[in-house]
């Protein structure tokens, strides 16, 4: 991925945060990690460390949702799209080493920043879901905008915490999506048995 | 005595936040000797706030679920909890102070690993109150789902939906929660293989520590 010096600095800062934590990552760390001079970092982030950290978090959140959109592209129907999205998002959070480290060691520095961007993320997600929902046969009395708002909230909630659901288990995700999250959204949420997501069938057939 | 000390701590937090409250403040507010505080809360300040958080969560759930005794049906029960929880949070001055002025104190409990503990606690506390309305098997999940929904609307308010308004809360329940959680709907719609007790019992298992 070549996104110029700015992108390189942001990615380098993610790495530096993984090593030193949010509180201790300096402009020098970012410069060294990115292989650029300190002056270059300051030119791109004149607001200094605070701006750099803030934009790094925003950058990483945007990258996360871009990957999420890639991952669900081409899903055969809306329910499958939601299932794939939840499974991917959960795995991506669990496997994000820097995120996991920061959540363990300095959640008080990360979460307020994430919460600040939450309304924007929710709006983006809602805008993404709305046209997709407009193509579906919705339950009686449900309009696409309110359904999109509701589902965007639910998706964010499950990205932030799986609660009692095992989101690594395709069967559970299927139950969650079709019998619960979409029960009141789609005219037919696929409660009746229907072919499983072919991608899941492949995964299930793969090695343990 | 513990109760009185927690009451005093709550008043302190409502006035100047968690960070602004020292053990000396609590002792002065109670009033009691510092030694008494340490005897009741051997964990010191951290232990005191931990106990306060747990007690407030329990009291919050009790207060929100108490009116369920008078609920007419599943829709009414879910609406009562959703709207009651949104209102109770709005009226909780200590919560509001921390939420507005020191979100970094509060948020770690609501994100990623730690939020699952909150859901678990809410399921245990509120589940039994909800069971008569959604069925034993779905009660814990229903509590968690309501908690998720309230949290979402508290943390990013929407221009469209205000859960402290009973009519709006009812609309949300009717549209999105009831079709999944109403045992009557499941029974009346057997052809579609809706969530049934058999189904519910094989799903959600608590994970993590």
List SSEs of chain A in N-to-C order: HHHHHHHHHH
Radius of gyration of chain B, rounded?
19 Å
Helix content of chain A: over 70%
Using DSSP, what is the number of strands of chain A? 0
Summarize the largest interface: chains and residue counts: A-B, 45 and 46 residues
Order of helices and strands of chain B: HHHHHHHHHHHH
Supply the number of helical segments of chain A.
10
Q: What composes the largest sheet of chain B?
A: none
What does this structure look like?
The complex is a heterodimer of chains A (208) and B (209). Chain A is mainly α. Chain A has two domains: 72 residues, Tetracycline Repressor, domain 2, CATH 1.10.357; 135 residues, no CATH class. Chain A is built from ten helices and no strands. The longest helix of chain A has 28 residues. Chain B is mostly helical and 209 residues long. Chain B has a domain of 135 residues. Chain B is 73% helix and 0% strand. Chain B contains twelve helices and no strands. The C terminus of chain B is likely disordered. The chains are: A mainly alpha (208), B mainly alpha (209).
């Amino acid at each position: 991925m070549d996104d110029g010096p700015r992108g390189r600095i942001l990615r380098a800062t993610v790495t530096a945060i993984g090593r030193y934590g949010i509180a201790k990552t300096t402009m020098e760390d970012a410069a060294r990690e990115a292989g650029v001079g300190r002056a270059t970092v300051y030119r791109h982030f004149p607001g200094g460390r605070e701006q750099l950290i803030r934009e790094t978090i925003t950058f990483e959140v945007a990258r996360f949702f871009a990957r999420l959109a890639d991952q669900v592209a081409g899903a055969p129907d809306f329910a499958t799209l939601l299932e794939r999205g939840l499974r991917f998002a959960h795995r991506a959070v669990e496997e994000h080493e820097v995120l996991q480290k920061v959540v363990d060691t300095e959640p008080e520095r990360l979460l307020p920043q994430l919460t600040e961007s939450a309304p924007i993320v929710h709006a983006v997600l809602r805008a993404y879901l709305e046209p997709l929902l407009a193509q579906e046969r919705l339950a009686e009395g449900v309009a696409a905008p309110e359904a999109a708002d509701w589902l965007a909230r639910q998706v964010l909630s499950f990205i932030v915490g799986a609660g009692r659901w095992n989101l690594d288990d395709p069967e559970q995700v299927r139950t969650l999506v079709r019998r619960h999250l979409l029960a009141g959204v789609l005219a037919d949420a696929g409660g009746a048995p229907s072919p499983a997501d072919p991608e899941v069938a492949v995964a299930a057939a793969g090695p343990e | 005595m513990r109760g009185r000390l927690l009451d005093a701590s709550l008043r302190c937090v409502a006035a100047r936040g968690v960070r602004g409250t020292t053990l000396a403040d609590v002792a002065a507010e109670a009033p009691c000797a510092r030694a008494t505080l340490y005897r009741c809360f051997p964990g010191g300040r951290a232990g005191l706030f931990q106990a306060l958080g747990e007690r407030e969560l329990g009291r919050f759930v009790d207060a929100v679920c108490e009116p369920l005794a008078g609920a007419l049906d599943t829709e009414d029960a879910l609406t009562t909890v959703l709207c009651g929880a949104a209102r109770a949070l709005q009226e909780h001055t200590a919560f509001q102070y921390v939420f507005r002025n020191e979100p970094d104190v509060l948020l770690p409990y609501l994100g990623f690993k730690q939020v699952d503990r909150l859901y678990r606690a809410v399921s245990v506390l509120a589940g039994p109150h909800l069971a008569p309305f959604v069925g034993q098997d779905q009660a814990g999940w229903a509590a968690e789902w309501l908690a998720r929904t309230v949290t979402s609307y508290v943390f990013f308010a929407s221009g469209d939906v205000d859960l402290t308004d009973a009519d709006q809360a009812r609309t949300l329940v009717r549209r999105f929660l009831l079709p999944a959680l109403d045992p009557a709907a499941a029974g009346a719609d057997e052809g579609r293989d809706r969530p049934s007790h058999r189904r519910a019992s094989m799903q959600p298992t608590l994970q993590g520590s």
